[in-house]
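Hi all, long-time lurker, first post. I run a small reading group and we've been trying to get comfortable going from sequence to structure in the token notation. Rather than ask abstract questions, I figured I'd post a concrete chain and ask someone more experienced to write out its structure so we can walk through it together at our next meeting. Sequence below, copied exactly:
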Amino acid sequence: MAATAIGTRPASNVTLHVGAPGSAVASETAALLNESLGSGFIQPSALAELTAEGGGVLIRARGRGGELLGAGTARVLDQASHAVLQDRLRLPGVDAGLVGRRVGELKSIVVAPVARGMGVGSTVLAACLDFLTARGCHDVVSASWVSADPQHSSLGMLERAGLAQVATIPAFWADDQRAVGYLCPLCGARCVCAAVIMVLPLMDRANRG
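-- Answer (accepted) --
Happy to help. Here is the structure in token form:
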């Protein structure tokens, strides 16, 4: 991935690492993602596949000592994934204006417990948006976990970045969980968690900047 795709400047005590991970880095990052999002949520091999051919990105935030403080994943939706998104939004009767547009997805952003409150999540989010902008996306979508625990919700951070709520979908991850077999941090093997679907037209982001 070209270095020019990411323009975000992290805090002085944080270094951003962008692009395809080696096996050790993939394992370390997958462990952080699974700790926050559920045991077995993602395999190290999937992080390598995400970055293949420039369609997705894995961003890691590290401290001065090299410790992993946070991570984020994003991708440009292919035609099949775009169609699935439209179908899911059609059920609650939502038209998010995404038909015929190039759409990017913020898949996940997590911050290690010791690094929360340091702005790491917002820095990783900004870098993901930089990547999707550089890949020509018109809009970005994200599914924010509806959790009673603010520590497990990205809703506030996404809203501060300009994403707007368009729909709430119950049991959003149930099909994926059955297919992959991971454990929800709250529900275990039978996830019923809802997700707030959020959208940001990237032109709005440019105007905010």
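A couple of things your group might point at:
The chain has a mean pLDDT of 88.
The chain has one domain: 3-208.
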